[in-house]
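Researcher: Go.
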Amino acid sequence: MKLRPVLLVLLLVGGFYYVTTHFYTSGALAPLFGGHGASAGALQPIGGPNGFDLTVASAQPAFDAEEQQNIAVYKKVLPSVVNITSTTVAWDFFYGAVPQQGQGSGFILSKDGNILTNYHVVKGASRNGGVEVRLSNQKTYKAQVLTVDEGHDLALLKINAPDLVPATLAQSSSNVVVGQRVYAIGNPFGLNGTMTRGIVSAIRQVRGQESVPIDNAIQTDASINPGNSGGPLLNSQGEVIGITTMIASNGAEQSSGIGFAIPINTAKAVLEDFAKYGRVRRPSLGIETLPIGPDIAEQIGLPADFGLLVQRVYPGSAAEKAGMRAGTQRAYDGNMPIVLGGDLLVQMDGEDIQSGPDFAAQLNRHRAGDVVTITAYRGKKKIEFKVTLGDAKDQPQGPQA
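Model: Structure:
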């Protein structure tokens, strides 16, 4: 009688072992166990002497709304993004020609082959034959450099290729706000067709590759690395709001979460100049100036503690035609020679001129031929000039405004 409970236990254990080893692994009893139902997937055995079970999803999972948007932006824009390779010639120790290559990104503007990128991507490359463009279909074409704007770090290229898909430009970058989602598509480190995502971190002025201020540059934490330069920065509709151009790397030469893009409004102004005049018309006053701060203003007795003191006015310039005057009294600020007695420029169209870069940014909002109002002090007297801005191409080269 004492053996009966023992036999019963052995029978139950044996039955449980038989059922779990012969039915559960085949999936026949899977719906009875909550962890392996139809929604989570079924166990499928891998054969062989060391076989084991894998949990496999029963159906392709649906993408959530955010994932669907990411995928839609990528599919829409990828055919418009290109890889750009520029070849320059350097000289070795024995003065032998050594080809050097650089890579960047760009995007298609029109079906007839116009492509926008950064100037520094093609800088130094031959205008004919030194630049190649590879499309998303992996076909490569020689590119012609149509025009460049060094100050805004932009270059316009052209290729002859069929079935091009132009990118869609946002109507304006003026309505870009901090916090909105953005995407960058390009070729970081030569990895073509790479998309990253982030937000607009700030809208600020930064100095570009040629040390010229980029006004209203779009700062983003989307990962931007070498090779992304010239590629599009996109909004959530897949429209181009900027051209990725530089990163704050602190010497690391890779993404630190602080990247910058040239606003599309700036690019449109450059393209409009090229369409009208065949080149970029950068505005110029034709003057050399000295930035003024509180200390120097107090030392020389100026009526304002900010602005730009005119040191030289170039003959035939917009400033000369408007009646601006340079100083005549030579002096020194430390070891630096300066000229006193010239007009002190303090405002442009009612906006204070706080520094040289500040004034350059104000000028860059205009084009050659625009009329601006500049407020200045001549001695203690406040005066205004109506100035028709000149063309920088026609002005002497030098540290001029």
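Model: The chain is about 20% helix and 40% strand.
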